[in-house]
Structures are given as structure tokens and as C-alpha cells.
Amino acid sequence: QVQLVESGGGLVQPGGSLRLTCAASESIFSSDAMGWYRQAPGKQREAVAVMRSGGNANYVDSVKGRFAISRDNAKNAVYLQMNSLKPEDTAVYYCNLYRPNWGRNYWGQGTQVTVSS
What we know:
Blueprint: E1 4-7, E2 10-12, E3 18-24, E4 33-39, E5 46-51, E6 57-59, E7 67-72, E8 77-82, E9 91-99, E10 104-107, E11 111-115
Parallel strand pairs: 2-11
Antiparallel strand pairs: 1-3, 3-8, 4-5, 4-9, 5-6, 7-8, 9-10, 9-11
């Protein structure tokens, strides 16, 4: 099975930046969709940024202009650059891979991002 491992989370002050990395254990197919989701305490998990095949990306309104998703199929990796972080960005962030060829969803274990003074 495809395994996803996130890294780059941590504690950062408001206005700071972090870059999350999602490393896949297997090759990322060109047809795969990959994205980042987050879940704050007491809230539903939400899609933050999703990139489908071809590089088209969608962002939740609250992060537009601040976050950027990118992928490097050659390195089996997906990134989330997070700038101008706000306390409301505090959540556990999860990497997701959807493989339409197999109809399968894969999830990472999550990494904690805390934005606080």
C-alpha cells in the first residue's frame, strides 16, 4: 500500500512560515490527485489545498494568497508552503493521495501545526 509521511510541522509565531512535506513510498502517478487537509480541535476536517493531475489547484478561501501547494512526481513528494500564518491555521495537517485508477484514497498520519505567540 502507498504510505504517506508528513514532515515540517511545528510551533510558529503568527506571521511566520512553514513548509510541509509529504513523501510517498511509491511513485506518484500523473493521474493522481494530491492534497492537504486539516482538522482543528472540535471542527470537521477540511480540504486546504488540492492539486489534481495537470497541476490545477484549489484552495479553501481562508488560505488563498498565503498557502501554495506543489508536487514533484520525480521525488514522490508534495509540498505545502504556508506563509503569513495565523492562529486559526492551528490544526493537524494531513496529506492525501487519491488514485482514480484504483479508486483508492491514502492518508498520512498527520502533523501538528501550531501558530501561537
